[in-house]
Amino acid sequence: xxxxGLQSFLEKECPGGFYEVKIAELAAAHKYSTGSxxxxxxxxxxxxxxxxxxxxxxxVCGGQFKEYVEAWGHFIESFLRLGIRLVFVLDGSSQVAxxxxxxxxxxxxxxxxxxxxxxxxKRGVLPNNMEDRFCLPNLQTKHILKTVFNCEVIxxxxxxxxxxxxxxxxLNAMGILGQDSDYVIYQxxxxxxxxxxxxxxxxxxxxxxxNKFAHYIGIQVSQLPxxxxxxxxxxxxxxxxxxxxxxxxxxxxxxxxxFGVIACSIGQFIVQENFPCTKDQILNIVTKMAHEIFxxxxxxxxxxSVIMGYYLQSEEPKSxxxxxxxxxWSEILAMFKKEYLNSESPSVFPIMVGKxxxxxxxxxxxxxxxxxPPHILLWESARLRMYSILLHEMPGARDQDGNFxxxxxxxxxxxxxxxxxxxxxxxxVLDKEISHPGLIxxxxxxxxxxxxxxxxxxxxxxxxSLDPDKLLTLEPGKVLLVSTLFYIQxxxxxxxxxxxxxxxxILQHILLNRRTCKEVCQSVKSAPIPTARGxxxxxxxxxxxxxxxxxxxxxxxxxxxxxxxKNFDGKLFQSLYNRALDxxxxxxxxGGVGDxxxxxxxxxxxxx
Length: 608
Known about the structure:
- By secondary structure, the chain is an alpha/beta fold.
- It has 31 helices and 10 strands.
- α9 links the parallel β5 and β6 (192-194).
- The model has no long low-confidence stretch (mean pLDDT 94).
């Protein structure tokens, strides 16, 4: 992310630009110089890969969620022991300006990671270089940090990096822990600590030094945003700078020169052309840059947005687009926004203010969609019913007959070309037999009659044929399991799962909640190689929208019961799945325990 090639250049070519630090010494020095508790602001998304992969957790089977929670516990405790306060920040909606790059990466994941993985599974082998090809499951990290560990977790209204730097400045943080070369460019004095190189055993990491980089290429730190514009980043494409890079570096060979050559040449160009050093002066020449360097005056706004972003002054997100003068809707938006920014809810607030619903690439083989539907298409009807409840009170969203005029923009990966343009979805029409008391009442009134209404809306959103009475008496820990399986079996024209497959989901759920993390690992003696279908089914289950639905209707069930670490374990499921394919019956899979088999059947009857 950020400026392609910059981090590698700092690591290998820039003297003093990349060096090791001990977290304990950094914290002690910060406390001594400031007299305050040391704080690290964590770019959470950049830590997820490090936490999951370095913990040796499997992703091909569908996810080891319980073990993932445990790994975060070790991470948090390592910093707390040193007296360091952690503040976690996560991305909100993707910026429109970065949509092209977002799409490119989603397609790249499908082609270079997902498809090769399924090709291997069809041959009965695991992919080579699994650490390089991984496609992470639905980890629900912000909810784990918030509900399990009670951490400070902030969800940004936009992509998180700029907000992370602003927060780090405000808190006078000892460091930003992340892995994005944009942190080298941002105008801050807070050190950029590498999450990729963090060693939790030695509590050391590496620093990317923006001052040493600027000095090496001969410019001021305040001119680094100009460098980013001329090098290309997630907003300004390198392709638009191809000819400029060849010209500025006097490159006569084929293709583009190396990043090192480009970086030093851009530094010389900035000095020779006497580029200004302050934000206001830089902004005064963006039109000139667009004309003379890009030969495209329309690039002016893009260049301006990049400069403003690195100076931490991007325009505020238009989060009040649909607030109008409607007092009720404004109150609803305020309630949902607060819970969203505090990471207390799934990501539905952006939909309410005209932003898109997003779903990136998951571990599913779109080439076999006729056999196993992509999760986003499978769950489409439930999303449309959820939208109808969520947007029921939006001013101007419906006509006088109650039909929706407003549409929800979706950017969802369902295969090749699916992200070439957005899909616009019209919310379903709410069942007239079910009253909608309003989102304020659903979320704030906690009496018995309102709880019953919440369950009615929840059941209808899952599927109109689901009897809410089934849910009223159901153990809370089984709500996600039953409602997800019910939807998968009833929404399509034909059930997706065979009876034995549905029962395996139930069995692994029961076993998962009876065992400790260590016992779950010990119960699977060797890492199973899932079938292609088994891997696809795991994605369908773990990418459920049931947690979103539960929140929208007022949380009849607590969010903690809706998380994957309480409902699924990939290795356990695939082990049972392979044993069933090898001929073991359900009683054998239950270890010969009749009571366990009976419990599986009781839950399965709720899914019928």
